[in-house]
Amino acid sequence: MLSPMKTYISHRSAAEYHQIPALDVVLPGAGAAARGAAAVDITYPERNRRFQAEGVRNHASGYPLPRGATIPGKHWDVASPELVFLQMATALDLQRLILLGLQLCSNPPGKAGEALSSKQRICAFLEKTPGYYGIRKAARAASFIENGSASVMESIAYMMLTLPHTLGGYGLGGATFNHEIALDRQASRRLGQNRCFVDLFFTRARLAVEYQSFAHHATAAEQGRDMVRAGILERMGIQVAPFSTIQLYDEAGCRDFAFNLARRLGRRIQIRTPRFETMHAALRSLLPTRSASPSQS
């Protein structure tokens, strides 16, 4: 069912309203201070209803939206996370749109209810907007989204390893974020918990990629705990492949990790598309600068 056409906050302003995790990495220049005077994106249902006002960037849309596409805000209605994803398809390249989708579907391990959206909700929304501008690009991006990333760095690492070669990734698809593993009594006693979550998990191969960031794995005690946990998982029949921030940022180191991971998965990486180098460079450009805050590491 379609809702009446209305005026609402949209695009980047709606993305800021929803406080998408690490939005400054996903959308460089996000924030009213960074954008200057044109601080608010407003979408109007008809061109002749638009008005010029300081601090407003106008967008026009004559396409009716499904119910729930906007949500009530303090003064204006606001585009839903799913509508934001669709609208940003017209402004972002495919790689950055995928990253936006991953962040919309991100949440702390074991807390899926805290995610702003999910792959299922985004895809269901896109099915209800077949004629909307940017729909084909949005639908393609959504096909590469996975629920449950715990950080923007996990999202980018996932893209590097799993996206197809034509999009600059190493094509090692099939991983899920923060897979829950129940621990036996002995492991529970040693780690002081009944379950653990592995950052990326290849279910068929029973192989976990553990992303080790500067922020959360810097001290000797944290690194020692990582090694203990890896030993416990290996004893449970789960291979563990540690993937550090240093490797992710080093292009050759990242390539070595991907090829070694492929071998452990029983696969071969054979890059034949001439687009790979260009697209891989574009994918690497998504990495935040090394001076980024710990929350992004």
Can you describe what's shown?
This protein folds into two domains: 8-142, no CATH class; 152-296, no CATH class. 38% of the residues lie in helices and 15% in strands. The chain is built from 13 helices and nine strands. Strands 3-2-1-5-4 form a five-stranded mixed beta sheet. A four-stranded mixed beta sheet has the order 6-7-8-9, sandwiched between helices. Helix 1 (11-17) packs antiparallel against helix 4 (81-88), helix 4 (81-88) crosses helix 6 (119-127) and helix 5 crosses helix 8. The model is unreliable at 292-297 (pLDDT under 50).
Task: Please supply descriptive tags for the structure shown above.
single chain; 297 residues; alpha/beta; 2 domains; four-stranded mixed sheet; 13 helices; 9 strands; disordered C terminus
- Following the backbone from N to C, one meets helices and strands in this order, namely EHHHEEEEHHHHHEHEEHEHHH
Helix percent reads 25-40%
Low-confidence stretches: 292-297
Biggest sheet strand line-up: 3-2-1-5-4
- The rounded distance between the terminal residues' Cα atoms is 42 Å
Approximately what portion of the residues adopt beta-strand conformation? 15-25%
Mean pLDDT: 87
Q: Using the alpha-carbon principal axes, give the shape.
A: globular
What is the SS-derived class? alpha/beta
**Largest sheet properties:** 5 strands, mixed
- The tally of strands reads 9
Question: What is the count of DSSP helices, taking H or I runs of 4+ residues?
Answer: 13
| Structural domain tally | 2
